[in-house]
Give the backbone structure.
Amino acid sequence: MNSRREAIFILTRWLDSGEFPDRMIPDGDNHAFITDLVYTTIRRRRTLEWVLGELVAKMPQGETGAALLAGAAQILFMPSVVEYAAVNETVAAAKLASKQTAGLVNAVLRNLIRQRDQLLGRLAKQPLGIRTSHPDSLITRWLNRFGEDEAAALCDWNNQPAETFLAWAPGAEEPFTPLPRATRVESFPEYKDGKFIVQDPSTAAAVSLMDLRPGLNVLDACAAPGGKTIQLAWRMNTPETGGRLVALDLYEDRLVTLRENLARTRHSDVIVAQGNLIDDADALRTTHGLFDRILLDAPCSNTGVLRRRPDARWRWTTKRMKKLCETQAKLLESALTLLAPGGRIVYSTCSLEAEENRKQITLFRKAHPDIICTGVEERIPTRSQTDGVFACALERGQG
């Protein structure tokens, strides 16, 4: 497989459809390089378009535009790729589309190399959104909340490739260990034995707030792909804890991944259910009763994990966030109908936005004065040096 050709194909589809790029990247020997190239190009898209706009009268669309973006990404932001490979192999990949495309790509990329220093000098004088490749609407929010220096630092953080961490089963000497870059998790003998999963240390916040105790009936309400489900199962699969764990998710393709992860980590006792917490709460209650603990890892804008999901920054709008907030509020209300007296909901997101986090909890508690907040964890990447997360434990009284 021509890795650059594959990357250009993925970028072309993404630019056209907005599909999730991680679902398009194939497994194989070139997986690491393709992922790096695709993610770097998406992450730096706005900056790359500005630079290329200085070199072409009109930015080409389709495969030609994707090839130019990928080539420029290698030249400007992938120092491990030598210049001749960035140009020659990108041109060779573009030639598979058309010779005319290849000629344009070759000319523009060589011109970029010749003018790189001057272009970078002019780029440094551009607004923060262009320099760091973020949408202006998000930049404005962060400037108002964090100030100029921290907002810039947060944007820089988001532009660094994310580390991969192995999260180990309880009892390991280190609960989280970083994976060397370009190392496949399958190469570790412990992978087949199900001794670890891939997950950032920030996920420990929500899991810890669950406060698992013996014999609890537990629901992971938005479970796929299963990382937090497995962390809960590890802690429940002990003689001291026990209990029952139900993992719920809506989409069958995501449930396939969830089941595979549960099988690899030897958690056949987890009950996997397909459904939507909002629409299927009554059926869940009829089948499984009330739950003592509910983990509600709600869908969100992902602004705390833009390193890992670089495409999410281009989906961010105030309008979309407001719709997500409406969904989060409905999920909280549905979760409450499933919560046993004295039970606990842990609401979590990987968003930095107050509307999805503290304000969401404030509105929920205003509507339900009997609900008590018993713990909050919030991690801002520039301060925690981890993914950004928010988690809050909400308890219902015994009455």
User: Anything to note?
Assistant: Residues 350 and 389 are 4 Å apart (CA to CA). The first helix runs from residue 3 to 17.
